Amino acid sequence: SSSSVQRLDNLLLPQGEGGGKPEDISDEEELDGDDAGGASGGDDDQQDGEEDPDAHAEGVGHRQRRCRGKKAKRPCKSRRTRYKAVLDTMEAKIRQDPFSFDPAEVNPPPFVASDPKLLEKLLTRLRDYQAAQLGSTGLADEPRAQPPAQPLREAAVASSSWWPQSP
């Protein structure tokens, strides 16, 4: 039992000073030693000898790191709220007069202007919103891709006749 404690103490030492995982101990012996000692901490997710240097440096397990990385991609709630408020004010300006609004002349707040990706996202959203507003008024700059509507009589004849039409 004292040899297993000594082996565990050696694991805590740096690699160069005789520490680290001894080469002569197999993974099966390590697992048996952990189970025989009672309840294990459960911090080691990997048992094949591969160590994650980030997990040891931060003191967290592999599962926790995945979740934290996912949350780190999302800005905090106050920043999301500020962005939403900026977007709402710009959209209100577009709704007032969609023809005179120019997304290139937008003066974004510093937190948006400092992040090129966020600035491009804002400008793209504003352009799309302006196009949607222009389309809803029926006076969009771009011609519609729909074919002209058939006169009512031709549409009624075409839909009511079950006989094939001759060419």
Automatic annotation (TrEMBL):
Region annotated Disordered, chain positions: 1-84, 134-167
Compositional bias annotation for Polar residues: 158-167
Acidic residues bias: start-end ranges: 25-35, 42-53
Basic residues bias locations: 62-83
Signal peptide: none
Name of the molecule in the record: Uncharacterized protein
